[in-house]
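User: I'm writing a short report section on ligand binding and want a predicted complex to refer to. Could you take this sequence and magnesium ion and write out the structure as tokens? A short remark afterwards would be nice.
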Amino acid sequence: MTQFWKPGSEKPRLVDDEEGGILFFSTPTSSSSSSRFGYSSIDKQRQGLPVYKYRNGILYLVENHATTIIVGETGSGKTTQIPQYLNEAGWAEGGRVIACTQPRRLAVQAVASRVAEEMGVKLGEEVGYIIRFEDLTKPGVTKIKFLTDGVLLREMMDDPLLTNYSVIMVDEAHERSLATDILLGLLKKIQRRRPDLRLIISSATIEARTMSSFFDTSGRMHKKAGDEIEPKKEPAILSVEGRGFNVQIHYLEEPASDYLQAAVSTVLLIHDQEPIGDILVFLTGQDDIDSAVQLLTEEAQNLKKNSSGLVVLPLYSGLSRGDQDLIFAPTPRGKRKVIVSTNIAETSLTLEGIVYVVDSGFSKQRFYNPISDIENLVVAPISKASARQRAGRAGRVRSGKCYRLYTEEYFVKEMPAEGIPEMQRSNLVSCVIQLKALGIDNILGFDWPASPPPEAMVRALEVLYSLGILDEDAKLTSPIGFQVAEIPLDPMISKMIMSGSLLGCSEEVITVAAILSVQSIWVAVRGVQKEMDEAKLRFAAAEGDHVTFLNVYKGFLQSGKSSQWCYKNFINYHAMKKVLEIREQLKRIAHRLGIALKSCEGDTQVLRKAVTAGFFANACRLEAFSQAGMYKTIRSSQEVYIHPSSVLFRVNPKWVIFHSIVSTDRQYMRNVIAIDPSWLTEAAPQFYQQQGLNKVAY
Ligand code: CDP
Ligand code: MG
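Assistant: Sure. The structure tokens for the complex follow:
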């Protein structure tokens, strides 16, 4: 495939002048932390970062304002440096902890290990991190703690005012993830009760003024007489200039029909024609990234003249530690690293040495439709703001080039300026239950940074009521509601676990829950579809994917948890190890909730009933007289199909329940299980009465 490029007119220096109203704060360069006897290379590196100039300024603002908003280009040092400055200034003295949240788990791990390295300490001691199912902190020792915003929300259940923390830095706020927005709303509440708490909201591009007015409570608060230490209520805004080099933008002349193929061709074109320098490719998810890595690796082997010049690496959440280290390791001399990434490399992680960026123009995004009650993970167009960020990644070390796999006309005329906050395009079931667990009853009246659609809220309340998690007064039920809220999983999975315990299959539901918590236990390799399908058949159960998972898990244990066995069966060994870890955690949680572990010894009917108890809202019926394989959801008559990765693909049982939906050309159900429709009315009588299911002949 030939690519036609033309240089675009836009040269993003990424100094966002659209931002206009940002106050510029400047202070003399600090020299307080530098040694008189010369700097170590780490000190030198730290002091070379743009944010270093603002060290004293930041500390001053944090001291004097309840909230400080910091905007600075990716790579300027916000995430790795600011927590260290706070620590150096004594904010972690007296047993207090500095927290820094990230929307993504992988970023939490990567940043924490970097900061531990810079401070010369062992990860898990002074510097630690917590992500779901993994706690690498030491109470009383850890001073700087990186964690996902979701984990911090969970910590509020035990400590509603987050009293351990002196400063909470909500990082990557521009991403507007669901958990970030909930967190911002709750932190605003906490601030009223804790004048000693300081917040930092930091991001690459934020509408700083919107955020500032959200946190500005100065009009409403009355200063207590004689209270000298109270910080200023109006937020401070600080902008850190970037130091990016020019990036030349190239567009496609004609739209690409296959962005994956276009990305691969573009990388090869760059490799062939451009001077040395690493390439960062933005694709959307594990599937297309793995495919692209495979295609590029094969191509690289075929490139006789330049053989092994390319080092191709994937980057997505769920990578093993070893794979993560490869991403950050320096490129071997004379080689060119190609990193194929999700939008995690857009602003969350800084990769050194990138000179070329290939931007597919897409990312995987959640979309929820309250009418159909379906949440999709969709490959959707990114915004202009994202496209600019992606391009900026090419200008870190010297001037670079960005190849956009779309036309200039598309960029100018069709690409939306900003993304929509996740809050406004998500299923709110988890969000509602978390707020309820924190005692927030008036959810519709909650002070959100961006209001969720009322229909989505109503749907969430309805589902939670049917699940028996909320009562008629929309309060958490006891014990089910409170127990479900305790489990750090999707409420539907938690309900499945609770029901599994009642039905006598807690062992099995915990295994299923652990497997559903990892991305996929199968390895996808292009070109060996037949072998992969055959391997899957060895485990396939007529009842569906959940039961198949149990067979895989059993086989894995019987093999002595062997990596060879996984390799032979196209099973992802790393994912299976993760499953074991998560399962251990879930066992501990089950123990805490008083759930005794019990196996149903192969009685798949009880397991499927437990799945139904959690996921009844996702029930579908095969349309007998229409196109083959077409199902309709019971709730809203949406047309859906079984995903080809499911063991029930082409089997098409009459009644099924799905775990999730992915949309490509059609809406596909992933992880599907066959059920008996009578279980639906059993599991959720009110929910299905309106649907007239009782009258349906089955
Ligand atoms: O948060 P922000 O994007 O402002 O920057 P950062 O993540 O604090 O990164 C600051 C610098 O640290 C980057 O320019 C990288 O050079 C370096 N860094 C690194 O080398 N390895 C990491 N794992 C993280 C950061
Ligand atoms: Mg950062």
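A remark for your report: Residues 573-592 form the longest helix (20 residues). Confidence is low (pLDDT under 50) at residues 1-38, 221-228, 694-698.
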